[in-house]
């Protein structure tokens, strides 16, 4: 299961996954979800959060309509962004990208695609609608994600 969590094995990541799933259901927010969001708010204040955890938290707070936490996490993620060839993405700490070989374009590990996709979702899930600046950032993120597609339009894993 850890591989499905971007290599992060902690309660915060699992709580964020479950909270996101519950918030994506178009039902009223329950006491359970409120309590989970409270726990996630506490966790979001930790300075040593993994980039993957930050991305999940940003999306969870976007879904919950907590603009302040969403923005703080996106600002923090922005500092860790990898900018290359007119696109933006995120990678796990200590994971160096594979060198590009002539006539062969390497693809990022699926966890990098996943974390970058969560950041994109956090940018686009905003009430009111995302501002133009966020849409511009989202376009650079989407450019990188689309560059990771294989020739059949899929990605390296089901994540």
TrEMBL record:
Residues 3-159 form the Alpha-macroglobulin-like TED domain. GO terms for cellular component: extracellular space. Pfam families: TED_complement (PF07678). SUPFAM superfamilies: Terpenoid cyclases/Protein prenyltransferases. InterPro entries: A2M/Complement_sys (IPR050473), Alpha-macroglobulin_TED (IPR011626), Terpenoid_cyclase/PrenylTrfase (IPR008930). This is PZP protein. It comes from Sylvia borin. The gene is Pzp.
């Amino acid at each position: 299961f850890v591989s499905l969590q971007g290599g992060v094995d902690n309660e915060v990541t699992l709580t964020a996954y479950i909270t996101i799933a519950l918030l994506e259901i178009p039902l009223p927010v329950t006491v359970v979800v409120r309590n989970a969001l409270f726990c996630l708010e506490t966790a979001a204040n930790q300075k040593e959060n993994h980039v993957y955890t930050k991305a999940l938290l940003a999306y969870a707070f976007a879904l919950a309509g907590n603009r302040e936490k969403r923005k703080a996490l996106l600002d923090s993620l922005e500092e860790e962004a990898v900018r290359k060839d007119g696109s933006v993405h995120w990678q796990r700490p200590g994971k160096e990208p594979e060198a590009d070989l002539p006539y062969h374009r390497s693809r990022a590990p699926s966890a990098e695609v996943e974390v970058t996709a969560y950041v994109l979702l956090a940018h686009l899930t905003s009430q009111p609608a995302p501002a133009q600046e966020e849409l511009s950032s989202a376009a650079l993120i989407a450019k990188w994600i689309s560059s990771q597609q294989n020739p059949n339009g899929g990605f390296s894993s089901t994540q």
